[in-house]
Each structure stands twice: as structure tokens, then as C-alpha cells.
Design brief:
With 214 residues, this protein is mainly alpha-helical. It is built from seven helices and no strands. Helix content is 89%, strand content 0%.
């Protein structure tokens, strides 16, 4: 038990030190994420009546089908989630490894923020605050607790690599930073794969238990 506790303490200290050392890039990427969330909320609030009705119909039909006995295909959901997360990491790793790719990295951050803001706002607008919160908390919250920090961390890693390439022209140092960025990306990928399992087998089952209250 003491060994496990020590490992957890070392991991927690390492995470804290990493965030403390890179606090400015994290604050910057967090602001980019918040801008995306704001855009998503604004977009939902300005939807045309026809578009709002289409979204409402889709959500209501999805909930109704589950209440009537339909189930979520956990295996297919896991496969889709893994595929999406793998593509996400590859794109952010590659873009973060190039000088001209940082706008792409930041674009992904703002897009994920937009999707989050859009989804939460749409659920609340259509189902109301109570039911919308139940839907999001049971079906989307757990994996996003992992996904959002992972995206921010991967973006910060790319920004750090970009600064290293710009400031230090020595090939050996650049190669070392690229290796660090690659290893960090693999760690993030492992965390995102864990979020895929949570999404497919925990969040989906939790949602099935809560769907009767929607």
C-alpha cells in the first residue's frame, strides 16, 4: 500500500510540476478553449427555428428509442471512439512537430471547445436545465474530464516544441524535443484510449440507467 501511495504521490507531484512550469501555455490554450465554448453557446442561441427543430427531433428520437428497448452498441462505440482519439493524437502530434502546424493545433482546441459548448447548450435548450444536465453528466462528462485536459496538454507540448525550434537551431536539441513531444503524445494517447473505454462501457451504461428520467 505504501509503494502504491508513493507512486501516486510521485505522479501527482510530476503533474503539478509540469503544469507549474508551463502555466502560461496552459492558460493560453485554456483561453482558446473557452473562446471555442463561447462560440458554441452563441451558435446554439442563434439557431434558426428549422435547425433547432431538427436537433430537438434527433435528441428526442434517440431518447425515445432507448426507452423503447433499443440499446447502445458498446463495441461499435468503443471502436469509433478509439479511431477518433487515435486520429486526434496523430494530427496534433504531427502538427505540433512542425513550425507551421501550431495554428492547426490551436484550431483543434477551439473546435473541441465549440463542440462542448454547442452540445451542452443544445441539451439544456431542448431538454431544460435539469434533464439536459442529466444527459450530459451521465453520457459525456466522465470521458471529457480526461479528453479536455489531454487536448490542452498535447497542445502545450506542441507549443513548447515550436518555441524550441524557433529559439534553438541546433539539430541535436530539436531532435531531443521532438522525441519528448512524441513520448508525451504516446502518454496522452494511452489516457485517451482509457477515456474510450470509459465512454463505451461506463458512460453508456450509466446513461442507460438515467435515460428513464429524461
Amino acid at each position: 500500500m505504501r509503494v502504491v501511495h508513493k507512486k501516486k504521490s510521485k505522479l501527482a507531484n510530476a503533474v503539478k510540476e509540469h503544469i507549474k512550469t508551463n502555466i502560461r501555455p496552459y492558460l493560453f490554450t485554456a483561453c482558446i478553449l473557452l473562446i471555442g465554448i463561447t462560440f458554441g453557446v452563441f451558435f446554439v442561441n442563434n439557431l434558426k427555428t428549422e435547425q433547432a427543430q431538427e436537433i430537438q427531433t434527433y435528441i428526442n428520437e434517440f431518447i425515445t428509442s432507448l426507452k423503447n428497448g433499443s440499446t447502445i452498441d458498446n463495441g461499435k462505440l468503443l471502436q469509433t471512439s478509439i479511431k477518433n482519439n487515435l486520429i486526434l493524437v496523430i494530427i496534433m502530434w504531427f502538427a505540433g512537430s512542425t513550425v507551421i502546424g501550431i495554428p492547426i493545433v490551436l484550431g483543434i482546441v477551439i473546435y473541441r471547445g465549440f463542440c462542448l459548448g454547442y452540445t451542452v447548450s443544445a441539451l439544456i435548450a431542448i431538454l431544460g436545465l435539469g434533464k439536459g444536465s442529466i444527459f450530459f453528466s451521465s453520457y459525456m462528462l466522465l470521458q471529457n474530464v480526461i479528453i479536455i485536459p489531454c487536448i490542452l496538454a498535447l497542445a502545450v507540448s506542441g507549443i513548447k516544441l515550436y518555441k524550441s525550434i524557433v529559439k534553438d537551431k541546433r539539430k541535436e536539441n530539436i531532435k531531443l524535443e521532438i522525441i519528448r513531444h512524441t513520448l508525451f503524445s504516446l502518454i496522452i494517447l494511452a489516457l485517451l484510449l482509457a477515456s474510450s473505454v470509459i465512454e463505451a462501457y461506463i458512460s453508456s451504461n450509466l446513461f442507460m440507467l438515467c435515460v428513464q428520467y429524461l
